[in-house]
Amino acid sequence: MSFAHTFSRLLKISEKSFITAVNSFIGLSHRYEIFLKKKNIVFINDSKATSFQSSRYALSSSRNVYWILGGLPKKNDKFFLSKVKKNIIKCYLVGKNIKFFQKQIKSKINFSITKNLKKTLIQIFKDIKLNKLKNITILLSPAAASYDQFLNFEKRGDEFKKLSKFYARKFI
Length: 172
Description:
The chain is α/β, with parallel strands linked by helices. It folds into two domains: 1-27, no CATH class; 31-171, Mur ligase, C-terminal domain (Protein-Tyrosine Phosphatase, Chain A, Alpha-Beta Complex). Helix content is 41%, strand content 20%. The protein contains six helices and six strands. It has a six-stranded mixed beta sheet, sandwiched between helices. It is globular and about 55 Å long. It starts with a helix and ends with a helix. The relative contact order is 0.20.
């Protein structure tokens, strides 16, 4: 963004035009996509994040995160949580490779094994009710490929959005 701002000034684009353009920008689906805000909860679909490195951005950019993690991990992927764990309230493990992810986060952050998106969202809403935090983020940033449960990351993200909207109406 800093680069784009500097470049716009070199092209003599007015500050007002630049701000209007930035505010009208709609990001790509499944890439840190804020698709729902309800009361004090923000829902973010980052299904495209298929490695921990790509999930780290979302985790460092959000607070009070209920993080959905899992799928087919990248070979030799390592999770360095020290800089982001303060942002994570709880992690929910989904997919068929739960042991890999459990090993990566065990004794570092609080987690539950929920196996699929439907069970995960139900559990998240139960946990939110207990914690009573303000400004919550529900984040699907799985740090893994989707092929163990979905055709692709788009299908996984679409299912997350559909279920989130359904359960948000039901529980919030």
